[in-house]
Design brief:
heterodimer, A: mainly alpha, 0% strand, globular, B: mainly alpha
Chain lengths: 410, 268
C-alpha cells in the first residue's frame, strides 16, 4: 500500500471515529438521565422559564431531530447557543482556542526537550545515581497533580518572588490594547528593563561559553572577559530595544497567539511580555508531561543502544554524541512520536487544569467556567471541539508516522 | 520498587482508617463550634496551620484520604467489571462484535480523558459513586485493549487449541484457559490505573465537581487553598497536595515494579 492510499484509508477511518465521538457526547449530555435545562436551573426555575429555554434552544424537539440538527450545525461550524447568555458558543470557542493552542505548543516543546535530554542521559548512564534520580524525577512528575505543581510554582515565582505575573496571560495592562498604559509608566518600565536584561545577558554569556569551548579558546581570563563584554552588550541592546519600542502602543491581535502576534509586529518587548506570561503555565504542563517522555526515551534508548549498528558506529570511532543522537535516538524516535500523538489528549486534559490554575483565558478555562454556570450547551460545544481537535491531531501524527516508517503502511 | 510503593500506600490507607481516633480535632467543625485563629501559619498548636475557617489542617490531612481512596477503589472496580468481560467476549468471538467494540473503545481512548470525565461528572452530579463511574468510563478502554491483545495471542496457543479439540465449550475455554492468563496484566493496568484515578478525582474536585464540604478531602482543601494563594498562604495547599502526590506515587511505583516483574526485558 502506498503512502497515498494509506492516507486515504486513515482519513476514511477518522470520519466514523469523529461521528462516534459526537454521538457519545450527545448521548452523555442529552440522552442520559439528567435534563440539561432542569440542571441549569438547579430545580429553582419555574416551569415556564424552562419551557421557554427549551423552545429557544431547540431542546423540545424529538431526540432524533435534535441529533441531526446538532450534526448538521457542527458541519456548518455552528456549535449552538449558550444557555447562559444565548450567544453563539462557536464564536466563544474560537476566540478562546488560540490561548490553549499557544499553551499546548510551548508545553509540548518543553516536555519533549526535557524528556528526551533527560531520557537519553539516563539511558547512557544506566543504573548510575544520575539514572536513578532522573527516573525518580520522571515518576514524581507523573504522580504530581498538574494544578498542585502549578500552584506551587505560582506561589514561589509569582507571589513570593514576583518574577512573573500572577495568574493572567500577561500583566493586566498588557491585555490587548492596554500595553501603552503600562509602558508609559517610566519607573515601572525601567525596573522591568533592568530585571529582564539580566536573563538576556546571562543567556548571551552562556552562549558565549559554549561557543568558546568549541573553538578551544582559553576559558580564563580571555573567555571570561569576552562573555562579560557580551553580557553588557546584551544589557545595553535590550535597554535600547525597550526604549525604542516603548511608545508603539497596544498589542494588535491577529492570530490570537500573543508570541506570534508580537513578532508579527516586530516588537521585542511585547514578545518578552507574552513569553513571561506563558512561562509558568507551560513549564507546569511541560514538566508533568515530561515524565512519560523521560520513561519512554530511556527504555527505548536502552534497547537501541545495544543494537549492532550502534556498536558498529562506535567501533568506527564516531564521537559518542554522534552515536547517541545520530544513530540511537533517531531509531528510538518512532515510539516517542506515537506517544506524542497519544499524549495530546492528556495534554488537553492537563491544559484544562493548568488554565484554571493560572486564569489562562483558553478553552479549558471556558469549559470550567461554563460548568460552574451549568451551561450545558456550551459544555457540549467545548467538549466536541476538544474531541475533534484530538482526532485530527492523531490523524496527522499517524500519517507522519507512516511517512517515517514504511512498515506501517503494509 | 514495588515494596516501597506498597509501604507508602499501606501506611496512607492505615492512616486514613485510624484517623478518626488520632486526629487532634474535628476536621469538619465550622466556626460557630470552633474558635481557632483563621489562616494561622504552622505553629506548635496547629502543626500544619489552619484554613480559612480555622479548621486544623493536620486533622484534615489525616482524615482527608477517605474520599479519594474510595473513588479510586470504586472506579477501578467498575473498570474491571466493565472492561474485562467486554474485552474477553468481543475478542474471543471476533468478527463484527470485535470490530465495533474496538472502534468504540478507540474513540473513547482518543478522547481527552479528563474532559470526558468532567462532562459525565457534570451530568451525574456529586457523590463518590458518580465520580467513580465518570472516571471509570475514561479508563475502561485501557483494560479492554490489554485484555484484547492478550486474548488474541492466547487464542492461538496450542493448549487452547487442545482444549477446543477435546470439545470444551466456549465458556469453559474463556474462563478456565484464557482468563487466568490475562489476570496478571490486568493487575498491572489496575495499579497504574489507581494512580490515574486519584489524579483524575483530584482534578474533578479542582474544577468544582468534588464530593462536597461535609467530608474532609485533600482535593477540596487544594481547591479552597487555591483561593488563598495570592496572599501567600502556602500551608493550606502544600500538605494535602503532598499527600495526593504520595498516594499517586505509591501506586505508580507498584505498577512500575509489577510490570518490570512481568516483562523483564531490560534485565541484563
Amino acid at each position: 500500500m502506498g503512502l497515498r492510499s494509506y492516507i486515504i484509508a486513515r482519513v476514511l477511518l477518522t470520519i466514523p471515529m469523529i461521528l462516534l465521538l459526537l454521538s457519545i457526547v450527545f448521548i452523555v449530555i442529552r440522552v442520559m438521565p439528567g435534563d440539561p435545562v432542569a440542571l441549569h436551573f438547579e430545580r429553582r426555575g419555574s416551569e415556564e422559564a424552562m419551557e421557554e429555554m427549551r423552545r429557544s434552544l431547540g431542546l423540545d424537539k424529538p431526540l432524533y431531530i435534535q441529533y441531526f440538527e446538532y450534526l448538521g450545525g457542527l458541519f456548518r461550524g455552528d456549535f449552538g447557543k449558550s444557555m447562559q447568555d444565548y450567544s453563539p458558543v462557536g464564536e466563544q470557542i474560537f476566540s478562546a482556542f488560540p490561548a490553549t493552542l499557544e499553551l499546548a505548543i510551548f508545553s509540548v516543546l518543553i516536555a519533549i526537550v526535557v524528556g528526551i535530554l533527560l531520557g537519553v542521559r539516563a539511558s547512557r548512564l544506566y543504573n548510575s545515581l544520575q539514572d536513578h534520580s532522573i527516573r525518580a524525577f520522571g515518576i514524581i512528575a507523573y504522580a504530581i497533580p498538574v494544578f498542585f505543581l502549578g500552584m506551587i510554582l505560582q506561589l514561589i515565582f509569582a507571589v513570593e518572588l514576583g518574577w512573573f505575573p500572577t495568574g493572567l496571560r500577561t500583566r493586566p495592562t498588557m491585555e490587548p490594547y492596554g500595553l501603552t498604559l503600562y509602558l508609559s509608566e517610566p519607573a515601572g518600565g525601567l525596573v522591568t528593563v533592568l530585571l529582564w536584561s539580566f536573563p538576556v545577558g546571562l543567556i548571551c554569556w552562556a552562549l558565549c561559553f559554549v561557543l568558546l569551548k568549541r573553538k578551544r579558546v582559553t576559558l580564563w581570563p580571555r573567555g571570561f572577559l569576552l562573555s562579560l563584554l557580551v553580557f553588557f552588550a546584551g544589557l545595553i541592546l535590550w535597554t535600547l530595544a525597550t526604549w525604542y519600542f516603548m511608545s508603539t502602543g497596544a498589542l494588535h491581535v491577529t492570530t490570537g497567539l500573543f508570541t506570534i502576534d508580537s513578532l508579527l509586529e516586530g516588537n521585542v518587548v511585547k514578545f518578552v511580555e507574552a513569553l513571561k506570561g506563558l512561562c509558568l503555565p507551560s513549564l507546569t504542563l511541560g514538566i508533568v508531561l515530561s515524565g512519560v517522555f523521560i520513561r519512554l526515551t530511556r527504555s527505548n534508548m536502552l534497547e537501541t543502544l545495544r543494537v549492532d549498528y550502534v556498536t558498529a558506529a562506535r567501533a568506527r570511532g564516531l564521537k559518542e554524541r554522534a552515536v547517541v543522537y545520530g544513530y540511537a535516538l533517531r531509531n528510538a524516535f518512532l515510539p516517542i512520536l506515537t506517544m506524542m500523538g497519544l499524549q495530546f489528549a492528556t495534554l488537553l486534559g492537563g491544559a484544562v487544569l493548568t488554565e484554571t490554575t493560572f486564569s489562562w483565558p483558553g478553552l479549558g478555562r471556558y469549559l470550567v467556567a461554563r460548568i460552574n454556570y451549568r451551561d450545558y450547551t456550551a459544555i457540549q460545544g467545548a467538549v466536541v471541539y476538544f474531541g475533534i481537535i484530538v482526532a485530527l491531531v492523531n490523524l496527522v501524527v499517524d500519517i507522519f508516522y507512516a511517512y517515517l516508517d514504511p512498515r506501517i503502511r503494509l | 520498587m514495588t515494596l516501597i510503593g506498597l509501604a507508602i500506600v499501606a501506611s496512607i490507607v492505615v492512616m486514613t482508617l485510624i484517623s478518626p481516633w488520632i486526629a487532634p480535632s474535628d476536621p469538619t467543625a465550622a466556626p460557630p463550634v470552633i474558635d481557632n485563629p483563621l489562616r494561622a501559619p504552622p505553629s506548635w498548636e496547629f502543626p500544619m496551620g489552619t484554613n480559612k475557617l480555622g479548621q486544623d489542617m493536620l486533622s484534615r490531612v489525616l482524615c482527608g484520604g477517605g474520599v479519594m481512596l474510595q473513588v479510586a477503589v470504586f472506579s477501578v472496580l467498575f473498570c474491571f467489571l466493565i472492561g474485562v468481560p467486554i474485552g474477553l467476549l468481543a475478542s474471543y468471538t471476533g468478527g463484527v462484535l470485535d470490530k465495533t467494540c474496538s472502534l468504540v473503545m478507540d474513540s473513547f481512548y482518543a478522547f481527552p480523558g479528563l474532559v470526558l470525565a468532567i462532562t459525565i461528572a457534570a451530568m451525574m452530579g456529586r457523590g463518590v459513586v458518580n465520580m467513580a463511574l465518570s472516571i471509570a468510563v475514561v479508563y475502561v478502554p485501557s483494560y479492554y485493549r490489554v485484555v484484547r491483545s492478550q486474548v488474541l495471542t492466547i487464542k492461538e496457543l496450542p493448549y487452547t487449541e487442545a482444549a477446543k479439540a477435546t470439545g470444551a465449550k466456549g465458556r469453559t475455554i474463556l474462563l478456565r484457559y484464557i482468563l487466568p492468563n490475562v489476570v496478571p496484566s490486568i493487575v498491572v493496568v489496575a495499579t497504574v490505573n489507581f494512580a490515574d484515578a486519584i489524579l483524575t478525582a483530584a482534578g474533578l474536585t479542582f474544577v468544582g465537581l468534588g464530593v462536597g464540604i461535609d467530608v474532609p478531602d485533600w482535593g477540596w482543601d487544594l481547591t479552597k487553598g487555591f483561593e488563598l494563594l495570592p496572599s501567600g498562604i502556602w500551608w493550606v495547599i502544600t500538605f494535602p497536595g503532598i499527600m495526593i502526590v504520595l498516594v499517586a506515587l505509591g501506586f505508580t511505583l507498584i505498577g512500575e515494579g509489577l510490570s518490570e516483574l512481568l516483562n523483564p526485558r531490560l534485565e541484563q
